[in-house]
Specification:
10% strand, alpha/beta, 53% helix, 11 helices
C-alpha cells in the first residue's frame, strides 16, 4: 500500500494514460517518499495482480533488489549532483526499456543539482523522449532551481496521516476558492488576499502551502485537465501565472510581510489582464 494518497492517485493516472512525465516531490521524509515511489513502480509494472509485499514476480523482486534496468536512482555525489550523472541517465534512457513499458528515474535531493547539472537536467526534462517517467525529490522546495520547478508537476508529501488526509485537502479547497475569485473578478482582487486566505490562514507556512496548491492547479490546467474557471487561458497565460507563483514561493521565506507579497502577486496578475 502506498502511504501517500497522492501517489496512489498517480497509479490511476498511469492506467488512464494521463501521467505527467516528471514530478517534483517535496517531502518531510525522504526514506518514506522513496518507499512509496518504489511501491508505485511495482504497482504499475507487477507481473501479477499487485498487492503489498509482492514476492511472486521477478519484476517486483528486481525493484526490491535495486537491479531493475529501467529504474535509475540518482543521489548526490558528495555535496552535489554532478553533470556527469545526468548525462549518464540520458545515455542509458536513450534506449527503450525491455522489462517495463517505461524507463523511470528518481533524483534524490534535487536541490543539490548545481548550475551545470541543472542545465543538463532541464534539457532532459524539456525533451524527455518516449516512455520516461521522472521523480525529483527534495526536502526544501525553495532550494530547487526555479527553471526546474516550473517544468515539473509539484506534489507535497507530508508523512503525518492527519495532515496528509485533512490539511492538504483544506489547502487545495482554499486555493481553488481563491483562484476562482481572482481569475473571474476584474476589480478589487487585492481584497481576496485577506477575505479568502489571510483571515483564516495568517501564518506564513499556511500561505506557502496554499500557493503550492495554486501551482498544482495551474500546472494541471496547463497539462490539459479541465478546470472551469481557467478554461479560457492560453498556454502563454499559464506560463505567466506559473512564473508568478514560483517567484512568490521563492520569496515568501525572505519577505517580512506576506500580505504585501500577496498584493504584489495580484497586482502583477491584474497588469497582465490590462495589457491584453
Amino acid at each position: 500500500m502506498i502511504a501517500a494518497k497522492k501517489l496512489e492517485k498517480l497509479v490511476n493516472l498511469y492506467h488512464e494514460d494521463a501521467l505527467s512525465h516528471v514530478y517534483l516531490l517535496e517531502t518531510n521524509d525522504m526514506d518514506l517518499a522513496m518507499q512509496d515511489i518504489l511501491t508505485f513502480v511495482k504497482a504499475i509494472n507487477c507481473q501479477q495482480e499487485y498487492n503489498d509485499n509482492c514476492d511472486k514476480c521477478n519484476l517486483c523482486n528486481l525493484v526490491n533488489q535495486a537491479t531493475l534496468p529501467s529504474l535509475i536512482i540518482i543521489e548526490p555525489d558528495g555535496n552535489m549532483i554532478k553533470k556527469e550523472q545526468v548525462l549518464d541517465l540520458k545515455k542509458r534512457f536513450s534506449f527503450k526499456p525491455i522489462y517495463t513499458p517505461n524507463n523511470i528515474y528518481v533524483i534524490k535531493m534535487a536541490d543539490k543539482l548545481n548550475g551545470a547539472s541543472a542545465n543538463t537536467m532541464l534539457k532532459f526534462i524539456e525533451e524527455p523522449g518516449e516512455a520516461i517517467i521522472g521523480f525529483l525529490l527534495t526536502t526544501n522546495l525553495n532550494n530547487v532551481i526555479p527553471t526546474i520547478k516550473s517544468r515539473c508537476e509539484l506534489i507535497s508529501l507530508i508523512y503525518d496521516e492527519s495532515t496528509e488526509t485533512n490539511e492538504d485537502n483544506v489547502y487545495e479547497k482554499k486555493a481553488n476558492e481563491y483562484l476562482e475569485k481572482i481569475e473571474l473578478e476584474k476589480v478589487d482582487k487585492i481584497m481576496y488576499n485577506r477575505d479568502v486566505i489571510l483571515n483564516d490562514y495568517p501564518e506564513r507556512g499556511d500561505v506557502e502551502a496554499i500557493f503550492k496548491e495554486i501551482f498544482n492547479i495551474y500546472m494541471k490546467a496547463y497539462n490539459g485537465e479541465e478546470i472551469s474557471y481557467l478554461k479560457n487561458l492560453s498556454y502563454e497565460d499559464f506560463r505567466f501565472r506559473l512564473k508568478l507563483v514560483i517567484n512568490f514561493l521563492d520569496n515568501i521565506n525572505y519577505n517580512a510581510n506576506v500580505e504585501l507579497l500577496m498584493d504584489k502577486f495580484v497586482i502583477e496578475l491584474s497588469e497582465r489582464y490590462e495589457s491584453i
